[in-house]
Design a protein that fits this description.
The complex is a heterodimer of chains A (about 500) and B (about 325). Chain A is an alpha/beta fold and about 500 residues long. Chain A has 17 helices and 22 strands. The N and C termini of chain A lie far apart (about 50 Å). Classes of the chains: A alpha/beta (about 500), B mainly alpha (about 325). At the A-B interface, helix 2 and helix 3 of A face helix 8 and helix 9 of B. Chain B: It is a multi-pass membrane protein.
């Protein structure tokens, strides 16, 4: 037995995050930890990695009872955690990030350290460039650095918190191969994920948490997606997305030859043209960093446009500020990728966040109408099943999925006619995801044009009417969702990439 | 004439170099300490007073470093352990330090024989400018670099040691990580609070010696209640000019030292500018540097990412 947890309890103020949780994982086994947002998975794992300390309960590592009071203790016990938000120093090289804080001999940073890291990464057939700066790395590369970091410390118990949330399908395949290899070498692996197909593909056993309690542990071979969802949510859940026929045919937005430069002055979008109809969900697929972020920000008026036009009912909105756009009667709601950074004021409560934009009925002259805002907040809590101790609790204390619900709920309340969502379900559990899909479908029924930037192709195929594929800032195809396949989309996502690589050579 | 000017520039740049090196250490572990001026004041008074009563150069320097460390310790307890706002704490330290120096300085003046506390001639001789044998004989270079008082070499020595430490040692790497991303450093098993305390306190010690230089050497051996006079603030800005590198701080402080002494080397007959202009000049250049720096977008030579923010492990 690599790790055994007995009766672990942890509370934050009045919120019980973990209540008498039992869990165990064996050497040479991959255990999936499943649960809805806010069910306490990350909290539990943070107690193994020394970030939090349990209020009560005991932890056994390799048969011995231990106290883990700091990340250093966890390191010493061979526990390595790869956090959902990478713990890397941006301005240091891969190597320096890996050797950071290590207790190995020597006081000087020698040139040999790069070779040493190269050797280790090759031993596990992980591809990293030892001297590359983290800020120049893709998400996949960063994750590889995190894995090498854990291996460098000789960890044999590996915890991964939603490792696949930001990876491309190719990177996920690679990661799973690595994890399986580590399992074969006798490591114990705990993986937190929301994607049931990943759980079923990778794990040996699954432990399910619900509302801070461990409700069941099942062998993966003897279960299926439906049973797992039911255990997780506590009731049967319909696992299909209704796609309403899109009704309106009127063009809402027309984008013509849009070219946008990013902060570094490189062209992030090149000659992008498409149209968004009323009552339609237009999906945008593509490898991370293909220009999705720039597309959103250009449409919301946050990023200046170099060339091209965005027509709303034949009126060009390029060059107008977000405020002007709102004044023109276009209510465009933008749900940014970075929820707490751009979408909400993290240290304010739900009520105050409701009042940030000029939301219906929340202001009266120069004064705010807090009562209305509070009513609205309370209604959203009910409608979208938001888990929060109170509507005044700072939103940064809510778990990721609940933050997303707050944001989406607020934007929908403003009755938009264009809704832009970037990674609306990133890091969300199944139940929350379906709540969001339902909400989007309802907006669609009302005739709202929705731009849905997503990463899960399976979901996009079910939810969207049409899917536009971006690759290196260019549109490589716009296809009807019911007439295409995942493979075809995958090809569109990489097709141009290969061509471009060919050009470089 | 030019050699004389450059020589004076180096001399005037030394307190800035102490302040800048100290502040770099503090900012590198993520603590923006605006108390440099205050710590320099504390070092200035304690160094002078100990020198005045003991006539021992070594003890005087030691006392100034100790005083600076004490100020920094206060700052560290407030910001690292109690997580008080760094800006406010730093400003408070500056106000405290200057008050400390004025209050005890006034006492020193009252207790002195003729109302002017003056260091003994033996003491001053111990810190006099000396030409280093052989090296000092080299034309131009000898005069410029090898005929200074011992504290000048100490300043450069400390800056070089700090530079090497930050860039080439494992502890240096760890402290950089703490300043960039304390959560990451913590997860890597680094004791964030300890690293912060050590560097903030050493930083205060270095600033304190800079203060002693101002009261003892620049003051010509006579105590002056306002001897630091804004040099600590220039040092804070110089950190940015130096791109958080102690090596560049050496050059930067000598350039700024040049600005502070420029008025004595431009004859009134050629360019007739009011004295006030020259007094203002270093501050003007500081503003210019800040503007230029804010227009550059380099990740490598930027302020440590967590600078100004306190770290609390269980924060979500």
């Amino acid at each position: 037995m690599a790790i055994e947890l007995k009766g672990i309890t942890k509370t934050f103020g009045s919120v019980v995050a973990n209540n008498k949780i039992d869990l165990c994982v064996k050497q040479g086994e991959i255990l999936a930890l499943l649960g809805e947002n806010g069910s306490g998975k990350t909290t539990l794992m943070n107690m193994l990695s020394g970030i939090y300390y349990p209020d009560s309960g005991s932890i056994y590592v390799k048969g011995k009872e231990v106290k883990i009071t700091s990340p250093e203790d966890a390191n010493r016990l061979g526990i390595g955690m790869i956090h959902q938000h990478f713990k890397l120093v941006e301005v240091l090289s891969a190597t320096d990030n890996i050797i950071l804080g290590s207790k190995k001999e020597g006081k000087w940073l020698s040139k040999k350290r790069y070779e040493e890291i190269k050797e280790i990464s090759e031993k596990f057939s992980l591809a990293i460039e030892p001297k590359k700066m983290v800020y120049n790395m893709s998400v996949g590369e960063k994750q590889t650095v995190e894995i090498v970091k854990v291996l460098y410390r000789n960890a044999d118990i590996l915890i991964l918190d939603e490792p696949t949330a930001v990876l491309t399908p190719q990177e996920i395949t690679k990661l799973f191969a690595i994890l399986k290899k580590m399992r074969a070498q006798g490591c114990a692996v705990i993986i937190i994920t929301h994607k049931l197909n990943e759980v079923l593909e990778l794990s040996d056993r699954v432990t399910i948490l619900r509302k801070g309690e461990s409700v069941a542990t099942v062998n993966t071979a003897e279960t299926n997606a439906h049973e797992l969802t039911e255990l997780m949510v506590g009731r049967p859940v319909e696992l299909s997305i209704q796609r309403e026929e899109s009704k309106g045919n009127e063009n809402l937005l027309e984008i013509h030859h849009l070219t946008v430069e990013n902060e570094e002055g490189l062209e992030a979008l090149k000659d992008v043209s498409f149209e968004l109809n009323q009552g339609e969900i237009l999906g945008v697929a593509g490898v991370a960093g293909s220009g999705q972020k720039e597309l959103c920000e250009a449409m919301a008026g946050l990023l200046s446009v170099k060339k091209g036009a965005i027509l709303y009912h034949n009126e060009n909105i390029v060059g107008k500020s977000p405020r002007d756009i709102i004044k023109m009667g276009i209510s465009m709601s933008f749900i940014p990728e970075d929820r707490l950074g751009m979408g909400l004021a993290a240290s304010m409560g739900m009520v105050e966040n409701m009042m940030l934009k000029n939301y219906a009925g929340t202001s009266r002259g120069p004064f705010v109408n807090k009562k209305e805002a509070k009513k609205l907040a309370k209604r959203l809590v009910q409608e979208l099943q938001i888990v929060t101790p109170d509507v005044e609790t700072p939103v940064r204390r809510l778990s990721g999925g609940n933050v997303q619900k707050v944001l989406l709920g607020r934007e929908i309340e403003s009755n938009p006619n264009v809704l832009i969502t970037a990674y609306a379900v990133r890091g969300l559990d199944i139940n929350s995801s379906y709540v969001i899909y339902d909400a989007l479908n309802q907006q669609k029924k009302k005739g709202v044009g929705i731009l849905f930037i997503g990463e899960d192709l399976d979901v996009m195929l079910e939810l969207c009417d049409r899917i536009m594929v971006l690759c290196h800032g260019k549109v490589t195809g716009i296809v009807k969702a019911d007439q295409t396949t995942k493979e075809q989309l995958g090809l569109l996502m990489t097709d141009a990439m290969e061509k471009e690589e060919g050009q470089h050579e | 004439m030019i050699i004389k000017f450059l020589f004076a520039a180096i001399k005037a740049g030394v307190p800035l170099l102490f302040g800048t090196t100290g502040e770099i250490l503090s900012e590198k572990v993520g603590n923006l300490n605006l108390g440099v001026e205050g710590m320099m004041f504390m070092g200035a008074f304690c160094g002078f007073a100990v020198g005045y009563y003991t006539d021992n150069v070594f003890l005087a320097i030691l006392a100034s470093a100790g005083a600076g460390m004490l100020g920094a310790l206060l700052y560290a307890v407030l910001t690292v352990t109690l997580r008080a706002n760094q800006n406010v704490t730093g400003l408070t330290l500056t106000i405290f330090g200057s008050g400390f120096a004025s209050f005890f300085g006034e006492l020193l003046i009252k207790n002195s024989v003729d109302g002017t506390p003056k260091l003994s001639s033996d003491f001053v001789a111990g810190l006099a400018e000396k030409s280093i044998p052989v090296l000092g004989k080299i034309p131009v270079v000898g005069k410029l670099f090898f005929s200074h008082n011992p504290i000048v070499y100490l300043a450069v020595f400390i800056a070089v040691i700090c530079g090497v430490y930050i860039k080439y040692t494992k502890s240096g790497l760890n402290m950089r990580a703490v300043g960039e991303n304390p959560a990451t450093a913590d997860a890597a098993g680094i004791n964030v609070s300890l690293v912060k305390y050590i560097h903030i306190i050493i930083s205060g010690g270095i600033c304190g010696i800079g203060g002693a230089y101002l009261s003892i050497i620049n003051g010509g051996g006579v105590w002056n209640n306002s001897c630091v006079n804004g040099q600590g603030w220039i040092a804070v800005a110089l950190v940015i000019f130096a791109g958080w590198s102690p090596f560049k701080a050496i050059l930067g402080s000598f350039v700024f030292g040049g600005f502070t002494v420029l008025q004595f080397y431009i004859p009134k007959s050629t360019v007739n500018l009011p004295n006030a202009f020259y007094v203002m000049l270093p501050f003007l250049v500081t503003i210019f540097v800040l503007v230029v720096n804010s227009m550059q977008k380099s990740k490598k030579h930027a302020q440590p990412a967590s600078c100004g923010e306190n770290y609390y492990r269980e924060e979500r």
